[in-house]
Fold this sequence. Notes:
Blueprint: H1 2-25, E1 29-35, H2 54-61, E2 64-66, E3 69-70, H3 75-84, H4 112-123, H5 133-139, E4 143-149, H6 158-163, E5 168-172, E6 185-188, E7 191-194, H7 212-218, H8 228-242, E8 248-253, H9 278-303, E9 310-316, H10 352-355, H11 374-377, E10 381-384, E11 393-395, E12 399-400, H12 404-412, H13 426-430, E13 440-443, E14 450-453, E15 457-462, E16 467-472, H14 488-501, H15 513-516
Parallel strand pairs: 1-8, 1-9, 2-11, 3-12, 4-5, 4-8
Antiparallel strand pairs: 2-10, 5-6, 6-7, 9-10, 13-14, 14-15, 15-16
Helix pairs in contact: 8-9
Protein name: Arylsulfatase
Keywords: Signal
Domain Sulfatase N-terminal: 28-414
Amino acid sequence: MKRFLIGLVALFAFVGCQARNDVQNKLPNVVFIYADDLGRGMLSHEGQQIVKTPNIDHLAAEGVRFSNVRGCMFCAPARASLLTGYHDCHADKWKITSAGVYKKVFTGNVTADAVSQALEKQVGNSNTSTITMAEVFKKAGYTTGQVGKLEWGFAVSFEEMKQHGWDYYYGYLDHVMAHGFYPPYMFENGNKIEIPGNTRQDCGKTLERETPETFKNRWNMEGKKEYSQNLFLDKMLAFIRENKDRPFFLFHPTQLPHGPVAIPEVHPDFKDDKRLTQIEKEYASMVKMLDDHVGIILKELKKLGLEKNTIVIFSSDNGHEIYYSQEGRILKPVRNMQTGEKFDNVSTKFYSELGGDVFNGNDGMAGLKYDNWEGGYRVPLIVKWPGVTAENEELDNLVANYDLLPTFADLLNVKLTKKKDGLSILPLITGENTAIEHDYTVNASMYGGAIVTKDGWKLRNYYSKNIFQLYYLPDDYKEEFDLADKYPEKVEELKAILKKECNEDLANGYFSYQKFILPGVKVQP
């Protein structure tokens, strides 16, 4: 009997392993949903108390959730890092163009082709000299599509989209235009597509801070008929249907919930919620729409019989940001609402309870978008791969957004000819090796660089003040206790590594628009 039971267990183990291998050997579709300024604390499976996100929670319940992930401190470097596989402390891996140039097309004085050509001339081949995420999929025979706030910007040319490997794209080529949700036109495979009923050059963008005048302007719907996210959803569903019989990669860098706040209507969940002000209800509705759209995509995959052969990934570019500031509630620049003092980002820093964030969007961590506190760049990452990933598994391995490209290359057996900063986390996803992680990750910010080690040490640099702060995150989730004076040797050790990763110049970890953003292009009429 004992031999029989042992044999039965071995048989079940073999069958389970064989089934998993069969799934892995078939080229899976990949759908990657990339939120914009979504703090980890805005997800209900992470503890969010006001906004319920059942569809994203469903992904976490049926897949692997990574809890120790670093994105970047804001959108442009985050997207560049994600799509190239490099961290953002280098000085020479990509260029970021100035935004707003495609708004010139609105007047009719210049054409979209002229804008695109001017951008292409300015950037040259600096953004196409390394393999990018879509190119990895192209090399493996996939059809690739990107729908949303396209590339890393702040403005991108038609040629760059093509060179980066996108068979299909639809959305904003200009990130300033993407700060409004009612664009007069989008771009689809190099063509300008007019949006009937949307007639505002500013795409319906309003000021962030809530006042009676801001509220009035926000809800003045003249020239604002079609909401961008609904257009994106239709295009994504069409892409999935058109490519259901061949392997595809769909990347959706959504605008949600980046502000200024704009939503066609307040979600029923929040209409009568007395905990929230009007603008907070609208912001919550943006997060809710993001979750609803995730659910619609999942439903479509199931309807088409693609669910079991599709990897679905959910993440965000950076940490939480405040787009619902209001007198007496929460203000920007953020400050201690009890004392009125602005945080100096050395001895005082933003926490939800001090700054007045009713949502606790940074999940109790210090800081917000642009910071090198944990709340500035620690992001969610969920991977669901039916038949491969364990269900409802949480991993705290140290990983980064720049790991996704090497992971896809590993998945598809695509050889990378240039070394990337990222590592493949495919063995973590499949469960084949749960020990894989970085020795350390590095990040730039508006204050300076930061390094986090796999054993939990963190060094934070405030570059302009030549300040280095040391934290031990396993015992100090909120970064309250600076240990730099107690462990000077650890400071020097981590400083040396950070400097090396910054190409021997710590200034490369200190992001400034003047240094890292190209000047605006001149477009000939």
